[in-house]
Amino acid sequence: MVLKRTVLVVEDNEINREMLTAILSSEYKVLEAENGREALLLLEQYKEVISLVFLDIIMPVMDGYTFLSIMKSDPAYSSIPVIVITQSDAESDEMAALSHGAADFVVKPYQPQIILHRAANIINLRETAAVVNQIKYDRLTGLYSKEFFCQRAREILLRNPDKEYDIICSDIEHFKVYNDVFGVSAGDRLLRDAAKVLKQGVGSQGICGRLSGDQFVILIERGWIYSNEAFPGIMKEIAQIPHAKTVIVRWGVYSVTDRIVSIETMCDRALLAAASIKGQYGKYVAQYDEELWKKLLREQSITDEMEEALEKGQFEIYLQPKYTSGDKGMAGAEALVRWRHPQKGMQSPGLFIPVFEKNGFITRLDQYVWQKVCEILREWNRKGYPAVSVSVNVSRADIYNADLPDMLTSMVGMYGINPASLHLEITESAYTENPGQLIETVRCLRERGFVIEMDDFGSGYSSLNMLTNLPIDVLKLDMQFIRNETAKPEEQEILPFIISIARRLKLRVVAEGVETMEQFERVKKAGCDYVQGYFFAKPMPAGEFEKLMAEAGRMIGD
Ligand code: C2E
Ligand code: CA
Ligand code: CA
């Protein structure tokens, strides 16, 4: 059964009303009103279902034109078409009807076929227009839909070959989290309000569309300066939206240089630029360029090759010795990974670790490294070398894994290694990100006997105050920090000060990145317990380190 559409008949003359109702009833459900006021009440009640209104003009209480102008000025009803019933087909009547916003008119006396045809045509017209509008505009924000935006942008570029344009895409950081925390309707409101701000900001200089969920797009004539400061107005207004104070919007700009590229591709490039600054403090705008493209290709090839590289044993452990600063005796090593790539040669971790941190592979590589280090330690035990500790790097992603303490405990157990000989280096910045969970995990690891080192201390924002409450054993001073120390005489006091605090907290201190005699003298004088750096030795293959250790052992033994 086809659902009948609903038509409202507004006519004061009972006989006329019944006649019209009878004609329409064959095709429609009919609602009847005697005058404009009654009709408004029915409209209010049935606005969602009424497809068409037949309206008489001359009526008591509220006449047809008054009703029509009220109806057309209210957005809730204005899209419902109205057919006016006139006494004659005089041009003046027709003009009056159409000028008040009627879609069509019919003349008394009623001719059933004409009435039914006109009704069907008007309803059909309205429904087609509604579909077109739905495709043209995004329902939630009222911005152009992606398809329509692309079509309009293409037209604008074609029509204005001499003008220069940019495609700018925006992406709201952690929008999913916002939805989870404040609810979907708050999320919708954020998108609606942000779209409004965007549209106002762009004004008549460009067009705006919604690409998907939380991504918007603008085509704008070049002229704006896209620095971090170019969007403060828009950012400030977005911050006014409820709960949006901490919302961060990243913008990516693609300057239209090559008009043969599809608009969709231009949007992808702008989005790539926006994604490239995700999570970066204080950076809100990025420009797409060839460099970015190449970087993404490089990252992609690393991602494509990593699984195979792990399987084929292309990742190798290098060890960099650590010495006690007093007698320069060997005190252990840090394990640093290298990738022996079959075509590209030896790759340093700076090239691939950040990619693995992004794509999640880091947790697997780290476990591999820890296992290899355990193998090495077991081998040394077997050969009877004096107990030496090796520190390994632990990524923040590793710490979010609740099984980490169990996993490491069973690993050292399997290799028969004392957990105290496996030092875990956790970068300082991880401590400031999610201190609660991290501290919990680290406390647990310490209870199991592992030694915890805070890596890169001085590179981030952690305060000395914070140190008091952290379950750590060793403070590893960032090399940049030591470098600054050398450069600025006025900061010379900082190093001894930090070390005195570390002393009080019973933390041992390692200075890494020691490259010169001068730096060594200074960190030693300041009271650093251990040193590591090119001045003493670079990271080397495990075999070489073993030789060095054997010689040192012989020297001590001799
Ligand atoms: P890091 O943990 O801070 O490691 C110290 C880095 O400084 C190493 O670079 C080391 O070779 C380098 N270095 C040592 N002494 C000196 C010196 O005197 N001067 C200079 N300029 N540099 C020195 P590398 O091996 O390239 O590692 C870079 C970073 O990659 C490491 O920084 C660490 O964050 C990460 N990484 C390396 N291996 C692993 C791993 O197995 N797992 C994880 N998660 N990260 C790793
Ligand atoms: Ca380290
Ligand atoms: Ca470090």
Describe this entry's structure for a reader:
The structure is a single chain. By secondary structure, the chain is an alpha/beta fold. It folds into three domains: 6-136, Response regulator (Rossmann fold, 3-Layer(aba) Sandwich), CATH 3.40.50.2300; 146-288, Reverse transcriptase/Diguanylate cyclase domain (Alpha-Beta Plaits, 2-Layer Sandwich), CATH 3.30.70; 299-552, EAL domain (TIM Barrel), CATH 3.20.20.450. It is built from 22 helices and 20 strands. The strands form three sheets. It has an eight-stranded mixed β-barrel with strand order 11-12-14-15-16-17-18-19, surrounded by six helices. Strands 2-1-3-4-5 form a five-stranded parallel β-sheet, with helices on both faces. A hairpin with a 2-residue loop joins β7 (206-212) and β8. The radius of gyration is 37 Å and the shape is elongated. The relative contact order is 0.05. The model has no long low-confidence stretch (mean pLDDT 89). The structure holds ligand C2E and calcium ion (CA) (2 copies). The site of one calcium ion (CA) has 4 residues, from β16.
Write the topology of this structure.
Elements: E1 6-10, H1 14-25, E2 29-33, H2 36-46, E3 50-56, H3 64-73, E4 82-86, H4 91-99, E5 104-107, H5 112-136, H6 146-159, E6 165-172, H7 175-182, H8 184-202, E7 206-212, E8 215-221, H9 232-240, E9 249-255, H10 263-275, E10 285-287, H11 290-311, E11 315-324, E12 330-341, E13 345-347, H12 349-359, H13 362-383, E14 389-394, H14 396-399, H15 404-415, E15 422-427, H16 428-433, H17 435-447, E16 451-457, H18 464-467, E17 474-477, H19 479-487, H20 494-504, E18 508-512, H21 517-526, E19 530-532, E20 540-541, H22 542-557
Parallel strand pairs: 1-2, 1-3, 3-4, 4-5, 9-10, 12-14, 14-15, 15-16, 16-17, 17-18, 18-19
Antiparallel strand pairs: 6-8, 6-9, 7-8, 11-12, 11-19, 11-20, 12-13
Bound molecules: ligand C2E and calcium ion (CA) (2 copies).
One calcium ion (CA) is lined by residues 455-456, 476, 512.
